[in-house]
Design goal:
The complex is a heterodimer of chains A (568) and B (268).
Chain A (H helix, E strand, L loop, with lengths): L3 E13 L5 E15 L4 E5 L6 H7 L8 E6 L2 E2 L6 H7 E4 L12 H11 L4 H15 L14 H13 L5 E5 L7 H18 L2 E6 L10 E6 L2 E6 L1 H5 L2 H6 L6 H10 L5 H4 L6 H11 L27 E14 L2 E14 L3 E5 L6 H8 L7 E6 L2 E2 L7 H6 E4 L12 H11 L4 H14 L16 H13 L5 E5 L7 H17 L3 E5 L3 H7 L2 E6 L2 E6 L1 H5 L2 H6 L6 H8 L4
Helix pairs in contact in A: 3-4, 3-5, 4-5, 5-6, 14-15, 14-16, 15-16
Chain B lengths: L15 H4 L2 H17 L3 H18 L3 H6 L2 H15 L6 E5 L2 E4 H27 L2 H11 L10 H31 L9 H32 L18 H24 L2
Antiparallel strand pairs in B: 1-2
Helix pairs in contact in B: 2-6, 2-10, 3-6, 5-6, 7-8, 8-9
Classes of the chains: A alpha/beta (568), B mainly alpha (268).
């Protein structure tokens, strides 16, 4: 019998007006059937807004079905008296690590759930020590969670749930706010828990690469299960997945492109989920040559087309440094960084967390002030200049999760905020806002809506419009793809490329994803412990195995393939 | 920087003060606070200072760390002091228009500064040396009698502990939102007071929205981990008095009695 048995689950959200009358209803989940056997890894994949999180909340009785049933280890979640027992059986890990940690120290957070279960205090500590050991967190027992990295925080969240000895653990997009190293760590941890302790794992995600290891996969679209089966059978359906807003794994994408025009349908439908498999097949089938030339050629395998840099000097940094004080100690966040950027360049900045990337970006528009070195941006001496407004108008700074900075009563007014601050009169500001909203492909009907009521994707686009509205010449983006699904990412990349190629806007973006960098950037900066260790074309640094390893980066998939096939 | 505010955060070292029961520290802090308000001459203040010094040294929390963590509060104290400086009666020492500083006013200001700083340092030692969960448990136990009036003491204690956990998160978020709005041309530093207050709207609304979002998510995460109020919960830090607690109570009682006897017998 399966541990989790979901039959014909429908969940309806009712949108009510101020008097409590239902004005609209929407099925976030519709007629879903789902089973999870004990000890298995089951994945649910879908794009943002497909209903997968609403579904996940049913597994822990955070939500109860509008129609249908959810049975967890024989218990119906709709019965009030089963609530604690259901929640004890199924543990949940959520997306945002900060918003699920309750304790003020690592030990306290693990203790929280055990206290709720009424475990004796002596036994609580025994369990804490054992869990810390199992999850490799022993060294942090008394640390304040705020001092942990994102990946470690999420590890703590897993530990805290594990300590309660659930039979099943649900990860609701648990890796989407982490850097690649953090995500890998969490996925490995969960797989270990599955292998060593037979923990049933339900993974909710929008990354195809995370579901390869699953035993069974469900694909959600518009609240329904659109496709299900083994990872092989699901991920090999490249086109159908894409129509559901999911991008299949890299080897399969390559295989799909190669075999698309072949008459042999069977070949096309084969699952190619690992890079090794792909390489083997390419050798066997002599398809390798098709990769490089002809209509099936993979962009970037031989050479990525790069934009030649302009002549007009825009940013000049000489021996730039930044020192800050923390707990009475001076720390050097940035040391002796020099570079020049010409107008119209598209630059990516890579480096581990804490390597000084954010510091560098914030120095550029004077959000952080320093007196070490020299910095000229667009003719303004940033270090000496007192009034930075003129500089800031030239620089659009897109922080991570820009949607969290919306505040106005209407979308239009929010987008007008920037232009008004920079001294444009109301009519001008309005026109600039409308132009930016149009550029972001936002419908006129939302102009008067509150930005806080929009969907996640719309919010992000409104926030971007709010920055593009004052027509910056330099666009700085900090982790712009964080939390975006495959579609959202494609759309953002198209926009960035369009702004850069057509309007000659200089772009500087920080990213953890080397695939993104290789695809998009013409030039790469690598920072390591506050120093600039590389400045040049992305392919040179990223195809160098030693370099990539030394600075804890990752080789882009295309370059790995190129290396494996030894294409020069 | 806002991120440097550490008040209310546990400071992770081993010391005899760290090992005291949370209730002992709470009562000690209350007694100390009362003693500060009966201080009225230089000897009593010196005695209170000596007591505080020993307390801080025993806690092994670096003094510099404590002082730096309270920047905002020092500003508040200064602000209060300035008000009282011009409010006293007695011999006028200095005058400018309607502003005048008197000897009384000066003495009062001195007392206010010393009292408030001692009070804050004293209670800071408590928060630096006690895990918030223990502190919450201590409060819950001391205020337990309120339960008969249906005051949800246990839930309030957990709320307090969670509030402390989220202080650094909100500080960081405030910093980030301010920077983001500054990039969009916001100006928090110029203009008159009304302009400045208005300039804060684009910061506080997102901060508020984020607080609500975080609260919702946290509530779900707590539910998912079987939180169902104070009933049936156990404690990972059971409250337990040891020898060192009794010794501390004895010392605190001696100190407090000494202060009262001196106040009644030797001062006017």
């Amino acid at each position: 019998m399966s541990l989790i048995d979901v039959r014909h689950l429908t969940h309806t959200f009712y949108i009510k007006d101020t008097d409590g009358n239902v004005i609209r209803e929407r099925n976030a989940v519709e007629d879903v059937n789902f089973q999870a056997a004990k000890g298995k890894i089951i994945a649910v994949i879908g794009k943002n807004g497909s209903g997968k999180s609403t579904f996940a909340k049913h597994l822990n009785a955070l939500l109860v079905p509008t129609e249908g049933t959810v049975i967890i280890a024989g218990k119906n979640t709709a019965e009030e008296k089963q609530l604690l027992s259901v929640r004890k059986t199924v543990g949940m890990i959520f997306q945002n690590p900060d918003n699920q940690i309750v304790g003020n120290s690592v030990a306290e957070d693990i203790g929280f759930g055990l206290e709720n279960l009424g475990v004796e205090s002596g036994q609580i500590w025994e369990t804490i020590y054992r869990t810390l050991e199992q999850t490799g967190l022993s060294a942090y027992i008394r640390q304040n969670p705020s001092a942990l990295s994102g990946g470690q925080k999420q590890r703590l969240a897993v530990a805290s749930v594990m300590a309660m000895k659930p039979e099943c653990i649900v990860l609701d997009e648990a890796t989407s706010m982490l850097d690649p190293a953090g995500s890998r760590m969490i996925l490995k941890l969960v797989r270990d828990m599955n292998r060593k302790y037979g923990m049933t794992v339900i993974m909710i995600t929008h990354h195809a690469s995370e579901i390869v290891c699953a035993d069974y996969v469900y694909v959600m679209k518009d609240g329904r299960i659109g496709l299900e089966g083994s990872p092989e059978s699901v991920l090999s359906q490249t086109d159908q997945l894409w129509s559901m807003g999911v991008e299949t794994v890299f080897p399969q994408r390559i295989w799909h492109t190669l075999t698309k025009s072949l008459t042999d349908r069977k070949l096309q439908e084969q699952a190619v989920l690992s890079m090794e498999d792909l390489i083997c097949r390419l050798r066997d089938n002599r398809l390798g040559d098709r990769l490089i030339t002809g209509e099936a050629a993979i962009p970037g395998l031989r050479e990525m087309p790069r934009k030649p840099s302009g002549t007009e000097m825009l940013i000049q940094a000489d021996h730039l440094g930044y020192t800050y004080c923390s707990g009475g100690q001076k720390k050097q966040a940035l040391t002796d960084v020099s570079f020049q950027i010409r107008k119209g360049e598209l630059i990516a900045v890579a480096g581990q967390t804490g390597s000084g990337k954010s510091t560098l970006l914030q120095l550029l528009n004077g959000l952080l002030r320093t007196n070490e070195g020299k910095l000229i941006v667009n003719g303004i001496d940033v270090i000496k200049e007192k009034n930075l407004k003129k500089l800031r108008q030239k620089i659009g700074f897109v922080f991570q999760y820009p949607e969290y900075q919306l505040f106005e009563t209407s979308v239009l007014r929010d987008v007008m905020y920037g232009p008004s601050n920079f001294g444009f009169d109301k009519e001008q500001a309005r026109q600039m806002a409308i132009d930016a909203l149009k550029l972001m492909e936002l419908d006129e009907e939302i102009y008067e809506q509150s930005p806080l009521e929009l969907s996640g994707g719309q919010k992000k686009r409104v926030a971007l419009a709010g920055i593009l509205a004052y027509r910056p010449e330099i666009l700085i983006l900090d982790e712009p793809t964080a939390g975006l699904d495959a579609e959202g990412k494609r759309r953002l990349f198209t926009l960035i490329r369009q702004l850069n190629r057509e309007q000659n806007i200089t772009v500087i973006m920080v990213s953890h994803d080397m695939n993104d960098i290789y695809e998009l950037a013409d030039r790469l900066f690598v920072l390591h412990q506050g120093r600039m260790v590389y400045d040049g074309p992305p392919e040179r640094a990223l195809s160098d195995t030693d370099f990539v390893k030394r600075y804890a980066l990752e080789m882009p998939d295309v370059l790995s393939l190129k290396l494996a096939l030894s294409i020069s | 920087m806002l991120k440097d505010i550490t008040i209310g955060q546990y400071y992770n070292v081993e010391s005899v003060i760290h090992r005291l029961d949370a209730r002992t520290k709470l009562i000690l802090t209350i007694l100390y606070a009362i003693s500060l308000f009966i201080c009225n001459d230089i000897w009593m203040f010196s005695f209170a200072a000596l007591f505080l010094t020993i307390y801080i040294i025993l806690s092994r929390v670096p003094f510099v760390h404590m002082v730096k963590g309270m920047k905002m509060i020092w500003f508040f104290i200064l602000f209060t002091a300035v008000f009282s400086l011009f409010g006293g009666r007695g011999t006028v020492l200095w005058e400018l228009g309607f502003l005048h500083i008197t000897d009384d006013g000066l003495a009062m200001t001195g007392k206010i500064i010393v009292r408030l700083s001692f009070l804050i340092l004293g209670s800071a030692v408590m928060t630096y040396t006690t895990m918030p969960m223990s502190l919450a448990a201590g409060l819950e136990s001391l205020l337990g009698f309120l339960k008969i009036f249906r005051v949800p003491v246990a839930e309030l204690a957990i709320m307090l502990s969670i509030a402390l956990r989220f202080i650094p998160i909100f500080m960081e978020e405030l910093d980030k939102i301010m920077k983001a709005q500054m990039s969009r041309g916001a100006d928090f530093e110029s203009g008159n007071i009304f302009k400045r207050i208005r300039a804060c709207v684009p910061v506080f609304i997102p901060l508020f929205a984020s607080a609500i979002r975080r609260a919702e998510e946290l509530a779900e995460a707590m539910d998912a981990r079987c939180f169902h109020g104070g009933e049936g919960r156990t404690r990972m830090h059971p409250l337990q008095y040891g020898m060192r607690d009794y010794v501390t109570y004895f010392i605190a009682a001696c100190y407090f009695a000494g202060m009262i006897v001196y106040r009644i017998g030797f001062t006017v």
